[in-house]
Specification:
Length: 141
């Protein structure tokens, strides 16, 4: 199966992410390594990876899932690095399954999902309190 050409919205998400990375480097802090501490996670966890993603990321996902107690690993055939953009319903099912395992989701709860095409650079900046070039953005409530 060949790789799918990214849709314009997907390409814009990548461009936006690259701009966010470049504009927020001065806000980044060196994090302590956590891979060896994944076994300390006690909340239900799920990892979703596509088998068409970058091979080192697939392997990292598999290793991380193996270290997290009770983690459910979902490997999606033919999926690249963009499950939320390509298969948002699948991502929602995985989230709902994880919340159910945790007892945090009532059986009759209905999720309302709004898929936004807002550039992730603006969302990243808003979450960090940073406003690139004097612009601001409000996170959806």
């Amino acid at each position: 199966m060949g790789r799918r050409r990214p849709a314009p919205a997907v390409r814009e998400q990548f461009r936006s992410a690259a701009r966010a990375e470049i504009s927020s480097r001065d806000l980044q802090q060196q994090d302590p390594p956590v891979f060896g501490r994944l076994g300390e996670i006690s909340a239900p966890a799920s990892l979703l990876v596509g088998d068409a993603d970058y091979p080192p990321l697939i392997e990292a996902g598999r290793q991380a899932a193996a270290r997290i107690p009770g983690c459910e690993l979902t490997v999606v055939p033919g999926m690249d690095h963009l499950p939320p953009l390509r298969e948002p319903d699948l991502v929602l099912r995985v989230i709902k399954s994880t919340l159910s395992r945790a007892g945090w989701l009532k059986a009759d709860h209905v999720f309302h999902v709004h898929v936004s095409h807002r550039p992730c650079a603006a969302l990243s900046a808003a979450r960090s309190g940073y406003s690139p070039r004097g612009r601001s953005c409000r996170l959806p409530s």
